[in-house]
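To: structure subgroup
Subject: Chain for Friday's discussion

All,

I'm putting the inputs and outputs inline so they're searchable in the archive.
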Amino acid sequence: MRDWSFNENENKKRKRIIIAGVIAAAVVIAVIIGIVFAVKSNDKKTDGDTLTEEELNADPEEVIAKEGEEAPGADVDVKKIVAENETDEITIGIDVAKYQGTIDWKKVSDSGIDFAIVRVGYRTLVSGEIVADSNAKYNMQEAQKYGIKVGAYFFSTAVSEAEAIEEANWVADYISKYQITYPVAYNCEGFETVNSRQYSMTKTQRTDVALAFLNRITERDYIGMFYASTSELQAEAKWETTRIETSYKIWVAQYPNDPYPQKEAPDYEGTYAMWQYTNQGTIAGIDKPVDVNVAYFGFNKITGAQSSETPESVQADPEALMNFQEVNETVTAKEKTNLRNKPSQGSDSSVLFTLSNGETATRTGVSNSGWSRVIYNGKTCYAVSSYLTTDLNYQPPQPEVDTGFKTKFTDVNEQVTAKEEVNLRTMPSVTDAGSQVVATIKNGDVVTRTGVNTELGWSRVEYNGQTLYCISSYLQAAN
């Protein structure tokens, strides 16, 4: 006799095995699909063919600012902070890049600022090219000139220790002609931005790269410093902070509602040497908000292997706050336009030339702020874009002749003659004493009509080089 209970149990077991197998297979397939999708997704993030040239060569600091990763800090009057809080153990300074525009460093110096940490360059977000900050040399030159102690920082997107060492060597060479007394900082942010070349790096890998930079900058006789926000440093959230702070100074960023000195220190629990406590500082000589820092140290000794070469004298980058799209085209003025030494109509700019309609210049850049960069007489100049045209045959509209009347004419261009006979007058009126008859034309005498006023019934005509007026009803089209 068959034991049906046993067979039934066996069937149930088989069913469970089959179901489990199906589920496992489904999970495996899902994982494979997920991996393929992730790989393709990651490929898309870094595939140069899917990114514009602007995205490939993006300044990572600009991308972070646009994305608003850091909430704005409290408004701070920097001069007041300096006057009330500076001691021998505490110095007050700013950090700057091209985004502060053209800085009047004498005014900054007069405000009592001790030091400035100048951004000297960055590695692009995607393509990985090292680029100098366009105002770095000017900022170091002028800060040094007016007695402000200078440090530097580099914005890194290095993905290997070799790249970090390359960055450090580039920085050391770039600043070697200047008197650097404050630290040289390693700054790395935005690594979790989708398009960042650092997107897939681990915390350990990023820390290794940072230490490679700092080790090399120290070998070049500069003082190394590491910059990051409190949220990234605290509890080693994004960096292996303990490894860094055992050898190098920490520059911590945190923007409380009540800034220094109302709040005496950041919330960071580790060791730190400098605190960036707001990005909304106001100070004479800088038109844009600026980062403000309190350093718990002061340095007077010049660091680094000083170059024997004297740095060349440089001017501020007039395009620092503008994004120009590169073009190459010939333009002329619609009528007349001033060509200036910088893209500004303010008192800080001067007129180099005046371009008239028919004269040409080569336009090399167009900004979305309404300015064009042009080459004229071998010099780089700037003009308001709306005053220029690529139509080299463009004719400016002719101003209406002031007849003393409010008569308005619609422009036309046609050949007309008198139906029989019509007087041509100096004004479109038969009653005004100033309206004189200059000529009389008869049927068959052809003139050019350039304007018509249908309301009052007058025509404007050209006759023997003169602009004259006659009654429209006395005219007809010339055959």
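Points worth raising on Friday:
Residues 1-13, 27-48, 80-87 have pLDDT under 50 and may be disordered.
The chain is about 25% helix and 30% strand.

D.
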